[in-house]
Amino acid sequence: MSIDVLMPALSPTMEEGTLAKWHVKKGDQVKSGDVIAEIETDKATMEVEAVDEGTVEDLLVPEGAEGVKVNTPIAKLRGEGEAAAPAPLPKAEADAPAPEPATPKPAPSATPPPSSRTGPGATPPPPAGEERNGRVFASPLARRIAEQKGIDLSSVRGSGPHGRIIKADVEAARARPNAAAPAAPQARGPAPAPVQAPGPRQALSLEQQGIAPGSYDLIPLDGMRKTVARRMTDSFRDVPHFPLTIDLEIDALLAARAKVNALLEREGVKVSVNDMVIKAAAIALKRVPEANASYTPEGIAMHHHADVAMAVAVPHGLITPIIREAETKGLAEIARESKDLAERARNRKLKPEEYLGGTFSVSNLGMFGVTSFSSIINEPQGAIMSVGVGEKRPVVRGDQLAVATVMSVTLTCDHRVVDGATGARFLAAFKALIEDPITMIV
Is 415 marked active-site? Predict the structure, then answer.
């Protein structure tokens, strides 16, 4: 029996991917755990391992194929010891189970047929989900597909002989998950017209907006750009957000950084301003735990650790690898980890657990000379901090005019979780740590 190898969901947000490379060919023997392919998702390139053992019977999707939907068959395996697959049969025959021994037909009588009797000896066809001797009757192929798709066979009505569940029944249940449920009694009279929620605004083409064809080059959207566009649109539309901006004097921070890097020079580690920002943000989140939270329909999730995501620009988009439990790590460890994560992010080699699940984000555009900006919240996080360039600015100290290196930061808050007062307290704690960096280690 052939075993379908399906396009895996390599992250909770993955809907489709690109089959970048096959590591096997038709006729190869594979065992569970063997790497058989490389898949490019919207975030990274990952290896796919075989779950079953057998011989590669066919590769259904060629290398380089884009937009392959999750759970689409990409290859077929033949179980060990089985003969090569015969020529394909018509679908109805392929789905039908093996014929059962014929039984003699009862002689006609006035007694109702067994299918309509309710007394002893009656054998009515089982309805959906009915078990006989503790098991649901289904073909082996139907069982395998149901297990792969997460379908409960007890809710599927069988159309095979004697009510047996076959492949077509499972596929139909997957396409119409509520089809196996008993039909609810319908009220008399015309059904009320369904209320439709307003859909997303349909974008006009450039030609519709007066831009002549041939006056531009069109770069197709890849998976990452599509995902970023969808998530940012959803966040900006659905999350009630507001910004809070403050200015920080960072001369003491720059001096401390120079001393730290001099001490770490022999180890080949170089701490950046962004590494110190991540450390300060993590400590501030622990001092103001209400800012380290997420909104859920069930309640506000108060996170135990500051898992700080850092925005990294990559071709065709951005990704946010995470420094886990950043409040517990020293500057040297954060520097090593952030450098490694950023490098692998640009090479699309991150694992899902390395970029999913942060509690707070930092986006730094200071290296591009941007003075200040507001970021879009990375759901389900409650806030994101945008960091601008450190530059010489005039400041007033007492009644005297002076010059200092000043950096502007903006905190964008999800108002369902972080209100104005909470955001202000977080920024006050962050400011104290940045302007007196020795407090990061005490």
Answer: yes
